[in-house]
Amino acid sequence: MTENKGGKMSMLETYGRKMGDVKYDALDREKTIEILNANVRRPFLKNICLIAEPGMGKTHIVEYWAKLNKDKYLTYEVDIEAMGGEGENVFAKRIKELVAEVETINEQEDTVVVLFIDEFHVLAFSGYATALESLKPSMQKGVIRLIGATTTEEFTQHIQSNAALIDRVEMLPLSPLSKDTILNILENIWRKELPEDEPVNYDLLKTIIEYGKYRPAQSQPRKSIKMLDDLIGWYRSQDIVLNEALLDKRIYETIGVDPKFRVDIDQMEKTMRDRVFGQDLAINTLVDSLNVSVAGLNDPTRPESYFFLGPTGVGKTEIAKAMGEGLFGDEVFLDRYDMSEYQTESDVEKFIYNVSDSVGKKPFGVRLFDEIEKAHRGVMDLFLQILDDGRLEDRYGRQVYFNNCYIIFTTNIGHEQFERARRTSTDMTNNIDIAQDMLQRADAFRPELVNRMNGIIPFNDLDKKTRDMIAEKRLEELKIKLEQERNIIFNYNDNVIRFITREVSDEKTTAGGGRDINKKVVQHISVPVAKLLNKYRHQLSEIQICIMGKLRMGEKQNNVSQARIAIEQFKIVDDEGQTHVYKGNANEEIEATDKRAIHHIVQNEKTKEQDFNSIFEESFI
Q1: Are 337 and 487 in contact (CB under 8 A)?
Q2: pTM for the complete prediction?
């Protein structure tokens, strides 16, 4: 502990830090310096508080002011929270001792003490009420000189309604620095931290300022200074060139965004149509809205937001994945939230934690909130703030910004009514309006939420043609995978497609749609193919599947299918290069894997064949 001249513990030395040891000037803050000079010379109210967002340089201004006035003033930054760590009464006692110590120094020394309190709003906390009462007389009479700093939000939440502080402190909002000033700041850092033979790269510095958009939660000039600071660290440790390539690399490594990626709206639309069938209205409506966003004609302070209206399995998630890939370069930029996990009041805090943590770490991306109607009202209230202000306070009280996010709500509310209207009308524009009206019903969503959305995107039920296209696409993907990765020929016919979409799948969209079709492809096709692969591994060269058994298609009374997808034929190549062909019989429902199947050998890939009975030898079947 440090003692003062009277033998008591010095509050200034224990809880204070002497300011003024700063290398860089506070550029373009001359007016603020003048105001501080005038404030500390007032006869009575010598208290002022700088108000600005984190990173705008509040503390640096005071450091620079202290340096300029070190011959007249001793400026100390006081750790208020450390002083108050042992309870309100102890804090009040220490505040009184601090004021007394300052008053004694001011009377006896040639220099005058000025106190600086960062996080000035802490004084307005309820736990510090007694301490504030101890400060009031000294602040009112001009016994102490006090400079504070706080953010705009903390000022609004904690200070603005506190008449005792407002009456005794001049509030000074700081204006953001211009790009030219930020460039000058970076230039000064470059010249002082890098060798003289490393000429200032002004293009790089301007790019650093531009890349500030990738750190929306931080303010200028701090975020630009941090980026340059990072590059200088790599320059010194790796002896590498300071250029835009290094900057791009560091942005990608720290944020996960490729600064050189450019959105190709036409390619994104093509990807959507390749991945999702039968949703022309949804894709057209969405792409129209995305064109405005990609062109930069939207509100930059708010996230783009969309309602995806439709049942499960019609392509909503696939479209969202295509958005992640098209807007940010990879579908990993899609985060999905199951809103059934946030149905109770106690889940609201969990939602804040999960979402703010994700967006704080990855501020760029598509956020898909699935089945939004299941969310608790408290969560919906948070969305009003997110969609309007583009931000949310995390569990640490820090602001997380959503302005670089695309927000998607999915819901099935009103879908059936929309489908009826769609099938009886050719005016799709009117149907979009119908969908919006249904989302605002009393049992649906509040109008203020729906009206904040950039677009209502309705998805249609899947018709037979679309279902067939989905199944065929999955089969073609399997075919390509087998050919490219295993060099295996895979054949099927159209009956296989119709079997999947009509025979074993429920044609009602509510039964799962495209997602159900995908599961049926795995269950009825991928599984038997995989068993064959696992048995013969690298020997397998060809697979052909077909339908065996009686189909129920067209027979409504026959609710249980007696048909199945079977291995009709497959070929393997033994170690001597001979091709073994195993062929079943669809009419007799004999699969190629059955012991009754026909087996013949093609020697050395020539036409000579050896036919014999269908008993599978142990080494092959």
Answers
A1: no
A2: 0.74
